[in-house]
Amino acid sequence: MESFSLILAIVVVTALAFDFTNGFHDTANAMATTISTGALRPKVAVAMSAVLNLVGAFLSVEVANTISKGLVDEAGIRPEVIFAALVGAILWNLLTWLVGLPSSSSHALMGGLIGATVASAGFGAVHGDVLVTKVLIPAIAAPLVAGLAAMFATRLTYRMGKRADGKSAEKGYRAGQIASAGLVSVAHGTNDAQKTMGIITLALVAGGAVAPDSDPPMWVILSAGIAIALGTYLGGWRIIRTMGKGLTDLQPQQGFAAQTSAATVILASSHLGFSLSTTHSVSGSVMGAGLGRKGGVVRWSTATRMFVAWGLTLPAAAFVAAVAEWVCGFGSWGTAAVAVFLVASSAAIWKISRREVVDHTNVNDDEVPGEEPSGVVTQAMAAVTPPPAGAVTGDLAATIPAPADPAPPAKTTV
Question: Which of 148, 260, 354, 396 counts the highest number of beta carbons within 10 A?
Answer without folding.
Answer: 260
